[in-house]
Amino acid sequence: MAAALVNNGAISLELFNDCNGGEHIGVFSKLEPLLGEIRAATGPLFAAQLEKLIDATPDGRKKVAALRERMTAIMAQLAARQAKTAQQS
Question: Are 47 and 4 in contact (CB under 8 A)?
């Protein structure tokens, strides 16, 4: 809903980005790899407003990709710690 408010001009993109903290980037970074599959199952409008907002955000797709890479690295670090802890037990 928030994405639709921005996309339809009720809230400026700048204000949204200033207040939101990048949550829309994080959510879309998780959804994007599955978007085709989800839309095939639920319909083509799933997360369409969110995707439009990402595309309207300066460097939106780059930010999504960068966050996904950072999260992948963090998950690898966590897995390595868990494996190390398991070996020590």
Answer: no
Buried b (16+ CB within 10 A) or exposed e, 46-77: bbebbbebbeebeebeebbeebbeeeeeeeee
Q: Which domain holds residue 29?
A: 2-88
Provide the domain count of the chain. 1
DSSP-assigned letter for residue 11: S
At 3-46, the pLDDT tens digits run: 999 999 999 999 998 898 899 999 999 999 999 999 999 999 99
